[in-house]
Design a protein that fits this description.
Adenine-n6-DNA-methyltransferase TaqI, Chain A, domain 2; single chain; 481 residues; alpha+beta; 14 helices; 39% helix; 5-stranded mixed β-sheet; 6-stranded mixed β-sheet
């Protein structure tokens, strides 16, 4: 791509503030509210700060300089602290500082990285990095437009985070805290703690007390729970075979004690529910890898899902992979269809993701080809809840591999089928909305990343007044087609 603007050494465009950096060893840090930045972002929060304003942080060292798993340049705003693993830069003003950040993300810096074992950009090499330098007015325009993309992407990401919290809150309420069961029990007891079953241990009574405090703030729900008590068994049966709005009618009003104190609430589970090993309810299979894997990796072919593809994704979906596998390697791996649920069992174990494309998985992934009662959406929420417990098994120490037998032998509570069906009616719309927003994020990200190098080089120009308006995205997007 031909540049229409001059190329200048970075030192001619920024002020370098490295002398203000102050690394603090972890043992000497005092916890606080101010971000403590390293080469790839925030690593801690401390009680004080050394910078105040908008700055570009460029990684000084670390493998990420070569792998680019995360951006090597990013902005930090407000009051914060920086250790000596990131260079600190500032442009003419805030908009120019943002432009410098975008330009560095697309700059050719490989020849300015030294060190074979630990990559590093020395300050001497930092100053020489070539940066495309349009006139300041154009740098401002580019920064405004790209910032508009970033804000829209961030808003979508925050919306998805809220939806994820909603999904997890619902799962935890129903299947961990058993809120509907406590609600029904309290209604049966006339919302009087003294009328609860005598055999309940203190743990259940304390939970009931907390739940009663919630119900006392919601008289409408209390009235509905009271009304449920008068529903005949025939009416209740009819309600449970339809898509009723009254979730509580699906849940029991009693608890029973199991032989396993690690299950439910100290061994107490909703009456009528079962306990089973996960492996008795679903098939757990590992992916596969052709050997030696390097002979089968290519720049095209079937998507090859790595753990790094999962950790790079901020959503529950893996939409793309960095690497591909040659067709001749297919017989030695596992090809899954779009929508499949997978669970990491190495590197970053216990991380659930949905494939958003047909893809192959290696033996660092688990998948679930058959399921007796649980859906993928239920399993996804379950894995988020039990992840810490799973990876800490084995004398309580954290290990790097989640063995298949550990997952198969994990005991869990099995709710009644109608409750699981009811859960699906709530969780499917949330899942679909998260997917739709993820698609929008992907479109905005692709358009931004396509336009940015063309804007920086001068191949595309931004009309005056359209730097942050919605129609600028449409106009530039149509010009790019």
């Amino acid at each position: 791509m031909e540049n229409k603007y001059p190329i200048l050494p970075l030192v001619d465009l920024v002020t370098i503030h490295d002398t203000k950096r102050k690394p603090i060893t972890k043992s000497k840090r005092i916890s606080g509210v101010y971000p403590y930045y390293g080469a790839s972002g925030i690593t801690d929060y401390v009680e004080s700060y050394v910078f105040d304003g908008l700055f570009v942080l460029l990684a000084e060292d670390g493998d990420n300089l070569r792998t680019r798993n995360t951006p090597i340049a990013f902005t930090a705003k407000g009051k914060f602290w920086v250790n000596n693993h990131a260079h600190v830069l500032k442009g003419v003003d805030d908009l120019d500082t943002q432009y410098i950040c975008y330009a560095l993300q697309h700059a050719e810096i490989d020849s300015y990285i030294s060190g074979s074992t630990r990559p590093k950009i020395t300050q001497g090499d930092l100053k020489k990095i070539p940066v495309i330098a349009p006139p300041l007015k154009i740098r401002h325009q580019i920064a405004k437009l790209v910032n508009d993309f970033d804000q829209k992407i961030e808003l979508n990401q925050k919306t998805n985070q809220t939806l994820e919290k909603m999904a997890q809150t619902l799962f935890k309420s129903w299947f961990v805290d058993f809120d509907p069961v406590f609600d029904n029990a309290l209604a049966k007891a006339g919302f009087n703690l003294d009328n609860l079953p005598n055999e309940w241990p203190e743990t259940l009574l304390q939970r009931a007390k907390l739940r009663l405090q919630v119900l006392q703030q919601n008289p409408t729900l209390q009235a509905q729970l009271t009304q449920n008590l008068s529903v005949t068994s025939n009416q209740q049966s009819q309600a449970q075979t339809s898509q009723t709005k009254n979730t509580h009618q699906h849940f029991p009003s009693e608890f029973e004690l199991t032989d396993d104190p690690s299950i439910g609430i100290n061994g107490w589970i909703p009456k009528g529910w079962d306990v089973a090993a996960l492996g008795d309810k679903i098939a757990v299979k590992r992916g596969g890898s052709p050997r030696p894997i390097k002979d089968f990796i290519d720049t095209k072919g079937l998507p090859w899902t790595k753990i790094s593809d999962a950790t790079a994704s901020q959503s529950r979906f893996i939409k793309k992979t960095k690497e591909f596998i040659k067709p001749e390697g297919l017989s030695k791996t596992t090809l899954l269809k779009k929508g499949a649920l997978i669970l990491s069992n190495s590197a970053t174990p216990g991380l659930p993701k949905f494939l958003d494309t047909d893809a192959c998985i290696h033996d660092g992934w688990l998948h679930f080809p058959t399921k007796e009662i649980f859906s993928d959406l239920y399993l996804y929420q379950l894995f988020l809840v039990v992840r810490k417990e799973l990876v800490q098994q084995g004398n309580g120490s954290v290990f790097t591999n989640l063995k298949t037998d550990i997952l198969k032998n994990h005991n869990l509570i099995v709710p009644n089928k109608d409750i699981l069906v009811n859960f699906e009616s709530f969780i499917i719309p949330i899942h679909n909305q998260i997917h739709a927003i993820s698609e929008n994020i992907a479109i905005l990200t692709k358009l931004r990343d396509t336009l940015l190098p063309k804007l920086i080089s001068g191949e595309l120009q931004i009309p005056d007044g359209l730097e942050t308006a919605e129609n600028s995205i449409t106009a530039l997007g149509s010009n790019n087609e």
